[in-house]
Amino acid sequence: MKAINGAIRLLTVAWLLVLSLSAPAQAHVVQAGADLRVTQTFAAGEVTLVISGVSQVPSALRVAAEAADPVSLQLELRSLTDGGRSADSVRAGKESAALRVTHAGPHELYVRADDEVSVIPFRVLVPGSTPWTMVMDGAFLVAGLLLVGGVLAISMSRLLVSGASAAAAVAVTVMLLGPYLSPAQPGGAAPVAEPGRPYAQGRFSTLPALPATGTEFTLTLRLADGATGRPVDDLAVHHEAPAHLVVTSQDGAVFRHVHPLRTAPGVLAVRLSLPRPGRYLAYAEIERQQSGGQLLTGAFEVSGTAQPDVSVQEVAMPSLTPSAPVAGSPVTIEVATEGQIQLWLGMPGHLVVRSRDGAHLAHAHGTAAGPSALRFTLTLPEPGRYLVWVQYAAGGRLLTRPFTMEVDR
Question: Can you give the pTM of this predicted structure?
Answer without folding.
Answer: 0.81
